[in-house]
Amino acid sequence: MKKLLVSLVAIGFASAAMAQVVTDFAAVDADASGDVSLTEAQAVWAELTEEAFKAADTNADGKVDQAEYEAYLAANPVAQ
Ligand SMILES: [Ca+2]
Ligand SMILES: [Ca+2]
């Protein structure tokens, strides 16, 4: 069930990214802090849910760093 939820969330995340054509980490990290907060992510993907953000935040520190971001995109190639 959790896997299905993550997949559905990933599809939403990827299609939002395609619509915006913003997948570059530096472009999403608006304040250049080296990680993407939920606020920054939602500034790019307005419909991004907290659940989708947490799915990408694999170490659960509340931020998505570049490695987590790239891993998320790699796992969801439709976003490329
Ligand atoms: Ca940031
Ligand atoms: Ca993280």
Q: Regarding CATH, which class?
A: Mainly Alpha
Helicity, as a percent range = 55-70%
- Number of DSSP E strands: 2
Kindly report how far apart the N and C termini lie.
26 Å
Backbone CA Rg? 11 Å
Output the CATH topology. Answer: Recoverin, domain 1
Overall geometry comes to globular
Name the features.
single chain, 80 residues, mainly alpha, Recoverin, domain 1, two-stranded antiparallel sheet, 5 helices, 2 strands, binds calcium ion
Descriptive notes:
The protein has 80 residues and is mainly alpha-helical. It has one domain (2-79): Recoverin, domain 1 (Orthogonal Bundle). It has helices spanning 2-20, 25-28, 38-44, 50-56, 66-75, and strands at 35-36, 64-65. It has a two-stranded antiparallel sheet. The structure holds calcium ion (2 copies). One calcium ion (CA) binds next to strand 1.
List the helices and strands and how they pair.
Elements (H helix, E strand, L loop, with lengths): L1 H19 L4 H4 L6 E2 L1 H7 L5 H7 L7 E2 H10 L5
The site of one calcium ion has 7 residues, from β2.
Structure summary:
This protein is mainly α and 80 residues long. The chain has helices at residues 2-20, 25-28, 38-44, 50-56, 66-75, and strands spanning 35-36, 64-65.
